[in-house]
Amino acid sequence: MCSQQLISCFANMWTLLLITCVAAVSAEPLTYYGDKVFRVVPQTIEHVELLKSIASLTKLDFWVPDSVSLLEQGKAADFRVGYDNAFDIQALISHSGMPFEVMIDDVQMVIENQFTSKVRSGHSYEKYNDIETIYAWTANIAAENPELVSRSQIGTSYEGRPIYLLKVGKTGASKNAIFIDCGFHAREWVTPAFCQWFVKEAVNSYGSDPQFTNLLDTLDFYVLPVLNVDGYAYSWTNDRMWRKTRSLNKNTNCIGTDPNRNFDAGWGTNGATSSPCSEVYSGTTFESESETRALGDFIRSNLSSIKAYLTIHSYSQMLLFPYSYTNKQAKDYYELLALSEGAVNTLSSLYGTIYTYGPGGKTIYLSSGGSDDWAYDTGIKYSFTFELRDTGKYGFILPESEIVETCEETMLAVKYIANHVLNNA
Ligand code: 0X9
Ligand code: ZN
Ligand code: ZN
C-alpha cells in the first residue's frame, strides 16, 4: 500500500482517517433533547411584541405560522424552543398572562418514537420511506404497471438528485389531468407517504373499484412524490426539522429557500422575507430554485390538459384555496368554497378528522409566492393546498402509526375533487 516515501504515505493515511471521522460526525443527525413545542395565543399587541423580542434574542422554530413575522393577535401559534431556553421562555410567557400550552415536552422523544419499528428495510406504504427507497419504488411501480403508471424525470435538484414524476391513468387517448405534488417542505414526511399511497390505491383499485376505475379511465393523475428531494434527504440524514431546499445563498452560511415562497404569485411580498436565514426566504427571484423551476416548467408545458393542482403539506388539517398572497377574493371563490366543504365533509366521514377550509390568506395566514396561487393565476381553476394531520399533538413528527388513516381519509377528499373536475372541467 505504501510504495511512496514513508512520510507522505502516513500523511495520506492521516488525511483519509480525518475525512472518515468528519464524515462520520456530520452523518449523525441533529438531536432535540429537551426541546419543547409551545402553543401560545397572543391576546394583545404586547403579547405579539413579547414573542417577537424573544425570537430576536434566541432561535424560535415556528411551526405554525411558519415565521415569527406572521404572528397575529388572537391566532394560535406553535413554535419549538431549545432545552436551554425553554424554562425561561415559559416563565416570560406565563408572567405576561398569555394563554399557552406545552404541546411537546421533548421533541427528541417524539422523533425517536415516530417509527413503529427500528427495523428499516425495503419499501412500505405504512412507513416513512427515505429518498432512495422512494426512488426505487417509483421505478418498480412503473415497471410493474405499464398500462397505468409511467415515470419521467422533470428536473434535477440543486444537489443533483432526479425529480421524478409518475403519470397515473389508463394509457391511450389524451385526457385532462390532475397534478398532485408532495414533499415541498422537507420535514412534512406524511406528504410523500400520501403520494405513494395514492399511486398504490390507483393501481390496486383499477378494474375492481368502479369509481376509481372511471377516474383512471377518464383522467390522468400526475403524481410528484417528492419535490424538495435534497431537503427531504437532509431531513433523514441530518436534521429532522429541515424545511427549505438545500441551495447555497450568497454572503451567508444560511442554506436554502422556501420553495413555497418561490413562485410568481405576489412574489416577495406578504409572509415571505428576503433574508436567507429565514425559514420563509423567498429566494433571489421567483423560480430561482431548480426544483420549483422544474415544477413550473412542467405545468406550463402541460397547461392545456392540467385542470387541477393539488399540493400536499402538513400540518393543521386544512383545505386551502387561493388566495394566500392577498386578501382579494378569487374569481371562483364560491365554487372553490363549496367544493372544499364537500371534500372535507367526505374526509371527516371516515375517522371524524376535522378540517377547516377557505382561502389561504384568511384561513391560515397571508403568504406570497405559493405554488397554489401561482397555478391558479396561471389558469388552473381547481387549485388547492392540503394541510394533512395533525393539529399539533405531533405536528411535523406525525408517528408512522397514523400514516394509514391519514392517507385513507385524504384519498376521499382527493377523489371527491377529482370527480368534480371530471364533471366540470
Ligand atoms: O406556509 C406554507 O407554505 C403552507 N403551510 S406549511 O406549514 N406546510 O408550510 C401553507 C401554504 C398555503 N398557500 C400559500 N401560502 N400560497
Ligand atoms: Zn408545507
Ligand atoms: Zn384504501
Q: What does this protein structure show overall?
A:
- The chain is α/β, with parallel strands linked by helices and 425 residues long.
- The chain has two domains: 110 residues, Alpha-Beta Plaits (2-Layer Sandwich), CATH 3.30.70.340; 294 residues, Zn peptidases (Aminopeptidase, 3-Layer(aba) Sandwich).
- The protein is 39% helix and 16% strand.
- The chain has an eight-stranded mixed beta sheet, with helices on both faces. A four-stranded antiparallel beta sheet has the order 2-3-1-4.
- β5 and β6 form a beta hairpin.
- α6 crosses α13 and α10 packs antiparallel against α13.
- The radius of gyration is 22 Å and the shape is globular.
- It starts with 5 loop residues before the first helix and ends with a helix.
- The N terminus is likely disordered.
- One zinc ion binds next to loops.
Short summary of the structure?
With 425 residues, the protein is α/β, with parallel strands linked by helices. 39% of the residues lie in helices and 16% in strands. The chain has helices at residues 6-26, 45-57, 83-96, 107-112, 131-144, 190-205, 210-218, 229-237, 290-301, 333-351, 360-363, 371-378, 403-424; strands spanning 36-40, 61-64, 77-81, 100-104, 149-156, 162-168, 176-181, 219-224, 306-314, 318-321, 356-359, 382-388.
